[in-house]
Amino acid sequence: MLQKLQSHLSQPVSAAPLAVFRVIFGGMMLASVLRFIGKDWVTELYVQPKVYFPYYGFEWVQPLGEAGMYALFTLMALAALGIMLGLFYRFSALLFFLSFTYVELIDKTNYLNHYYFVSVVALLLVLVPAHRHFSVDVLRKHGLWVSHVPRWAVLIFQLQLGLVYFYAGIAKLNPDWLLEAMPLRYWLPAHTHLPLIGPLLDEVWVAYLFCWFGAFYDLTIPFFLSWRRSRLLAYATVVVFHVLTAVLFQIGMFPYIMMVSTLIFFSPAFHERLLGLFRSIAKVPKPALPRFAGTAGQPILLGILGFYFLLQVLLPWRYLLYPGQLFWTEQGYRFSWRVMLMEKTGTTFFYVRHPKTGFETEINNRDYLTVNQEKQMATQPDMILQYAHMLQQDFAERGMPGVEVRAEVYVSMNGRGSRLLIDPKVNLAAEKESFLPKPWILPLEDVAPPQNAVGQN
Question: What distances in angstroms separate CA 166 from CA 175, 193, 242, 313, one per listed residue?
C-alpha cells in the first residue's frame, strides 16, 4: 500500500504549475513586504511598542531595534524577490521562511491566519525543486533545468490550500454563524454606502445568505477546483468570493494571495501558456528536451511531509482538549484556519497590590500598551496572563517585588451582553503559562446571542 502511494506521488508531472506558483507567490510576497514597509507598519508594530506578547515557548524571539527590524524586512523583500526570480532559490526560500516567521513570532497581537498561511507555504517551498524550471538559477546553471517534477511537489500545495478552505468551512458549522448569522449580521450593515450591493447589506436575510454560502463554499471549493469539469466555474467563484471579502473587510493581501494561489489547481497546459507569456516578456527561450527531476531521497522527504500534514490535520482539533466554548476561551483557536468568525470586544481593569505594604493601584493600560495591543489583549486570556506577568516584572524592577495582579475583564461576543471573562479574585501574577486548561477563565453561560443583538429589518 505504502509502495503504491509512494509510486503514485513520485510519478513525473509538468513542472510548469510549480514554477508559476513560485513566481506568483514570490511576487505577492515582495509586494506585501514593500507595502508593509511603505505604510510604516515596521515602526508602528515592531519599534514603537514598549512591550510585546511573544508566543509561549518563543519568548526568546524579540524585536531587533529599528535598524535591525528594517534590515530584517529588507532581507525578507530580497528573499521574496529571489523566490519570484528563482535566484539562489533554496537560500531565498529558507531566508524568507525564517525572517517572515521570526517577525510573526514577536507579537501575537499581530496574528492573522494568512500570516500563518504564508509561513507554512514558505516552508513547503524550501522542500520543492521550484527553481528548476523557468528561473534565473537555470540560466546560471543549465544542468538544473527539468521539464517534470515528482507529483508530490505540486500536490502538497493543493493539499495545503484544500486544508485551509476545508477547515475554514468546518469552523463555520457553529450556531452563531449558521443560526444567528453572527458576526456578519453585525458587520454587513456598516457597508450600506457601497454602490449596487450596499442597500442589500442591511437586510438580515443577506447576512444569512452570506453565512450559509460561505460555509458551503469553504467546504466544497477544494473539490470543485480539483475536478476539471467544474474548475473554471469554481475559480470564478473564488475570484468573486475574495473580491467581495476584500471590499467588505479590511484584511490586507489575503484575498489576493488566495486568488493567485488557487491557480495551482489548473492543468499543466494552462500553466504552460502562462509561462509562455512570461517567457515572451522576459525573452527567455524554452528548452526543448524533456527531463525529470528524479526521486533521490524522496522516501525520507515524503515521510517528513506525511508527518507535517498529519499535524495540519490534527492541530485544528486540539480545542477539544479544553473545556468551555472555544470562541470564549480561545484555547486552541489560533493556527486552525478559523477566519472572521466572531466580533469580540473587551474592557479591562488591572489592579496591582503589594501584600506586605498594602499598596494598591489601578493600572492605566496605555502606559504600557498600544491601542491595538490593548484591544487584542482585552479578549484573549493568554495575553491577559502575559500582561499581568509584565506588570509584576515592571513593579519588581521599580523596587516592589512580589506584587499581586488581578483583573476585571468584561467581554462581549457576537452580540451577547458584556460579562466577566476571567475570575477577578485570581492573582494572575501567580498563575503560570502553559498549554494546560486555564481554570480562571469563567464559563460562557448562554450558548446563543440574543435575537435582538442587532437591528432587524
Answer: 18, 32, 16, 10
Instruction: Determine how β-strand 148-150 pairs with β-strand 344-353.
Output: unpaired
Q: For residue 453, what pLDDT band results from cuts at 50, 70 and 90?
A: very low
Note whether 133 and 293 are within 8 A (CB): no
* Maximum alpha-carbon separation in the chain: 83
Question: Could you tell me the pTM of the whole model?
Answer: 0.93
Residue 24, C-beta contacts closer than 8 angstroms, at least 6 positions apart: 260, 261, 263
pLDDT of residue 288: 60
Burial zone of 92 (CB within 10 Å; 0-12 exposed, 13-18 middle, 19+ buried): buried
Query: What gap in Å lies between CA 35 and CA 266, rounded to an integer?
Result: 29
How many residues make up the chain in this entry?
Answer: 457
Per-domain boundaries in the chain: 8-320, 343-430
CA 72 to chain centroid, in Å, comes to 20
CA distance 223 to 53: 38
DSSP 350-393: EEEE-TTT--EEE--GGGT--HHHHHHHTT-HHHHHHHHHHHHH
CA distance 130 to 52: 36
